Amino acid sequence: MIEPLDAPSALPDKRQVAASFSRAAGSYDAVADLQRRVGDALLRRLPDDLLTQRWVDLGSGTGHFSRLLANRFPAGEGWAMDIAEGMLRHARPLGGAQHFVVGDAECLPLRDASADLIFSSLALQWCGDFQAVLREAGRVLRPGGVLAFSSLCSGTLQELRDSWQAVDGFAHVNRFRSLDEYRQRCGASGLRLEQLEVVPEVLHFAELRALTHELKALGAHNLNPGRPDGLTGRARARALVEAYERLRTPRGLPATYQVVYGVLRRDF
């Protein structure tokens, strides 16, 4: 039996997610190397036979991949959609899409059978009800349409999680679904699953402060329910650094992201 993460208390409140990423709009691109690499890998996974009159960049952020999608599908009508209004304000002057819309992946503001591609890179891990995301994708896609997503699964930032466990019992690191749960949800979606795989991405940092700064600049710092209130005390901060230092390699302090790639198609 898979223990679902799709529970009301298991993931951050959407308003907190939207506010956090809105605040990060100005700093996001400067520290988004991993996000660029993952999104590029997702673009390479798009089916060669995909014909796109209308595409949706779901969780479009600063619009980097909206602009790449516009170049790839120059005849297509583009919709950049994000739950964070601040990201859309940042992206709109840079172009790429014809429409910039505040939208929730679990309740898309789009008509039935109105899109040929829903592209979503490193956004759906923040959705509490992944089954609803898939149901909405199936509703919005035209026959032959594709949902291509990248997300994060359990084991992401495990080094940071383990180091905090050596310090206290609080939830300091965001939780993510297991690969089994992604597989189960995709299999039950009514969409044809064409690809689903996990690719670990390991980043290295000279010091722990560089990792935590990057997470904050991305808007992806700890948003868990159950996180400790207030500032981290100096003694706990020192203990965390000491615990993480035990994991140091010749390349620096490792931070592993377990990246899930999925491609699903609506057959009818």
UniProtKB/TrEMBL annotation:
Q: Where is the Methyltransferase type domain?
A: 56-149
Name the source's superkingdom: Bacteria
Please name the top-level EC class of this enzyme.
Answer: transferase
Give the record's GO biological process terms. Answer: biotin biosynthetic process; methylation
Reaction(s) catalysed by this chain's protein = malonyl-[ACP] + S-adenosyl-L-methionine = malonyl-[ACP] methyl ester + S-adenosyl-L-homocysteine
Named in its record, the pathway it takes part in is:
Cofactor biosynthesis; biotin biosynthesis
EC number of this enzyme: 2.1.1.197
GO MF term list = carboxyl-O-methyltransferase activity; malonyl-CoA methyltransferase activity; S-adenosylmethionine-dependent methyltransferase activity
Return any one Pfam family short name: Methyltransf_11
TM segment ranges: none
Q: Which UniProt keywords apply?
A: Biotin biosynthesis, Methyltransferase, S-adenosyl-L-methionine, Transferase
**Which family is annotated?**
Belongs to the methyltransferase superfamily.
Spell out the protein name for this chain: Malonyl-[acyl-carrier protein] O-methyltransferase
Q: Which organism is it from?
A: Stutzerimonas marianensis
Organism classification: Bacteria, Pseudomonadati, Pseudomonadota, Gammaproteobacteria, Pseudomonadales
Designated gene of the protein: bioC
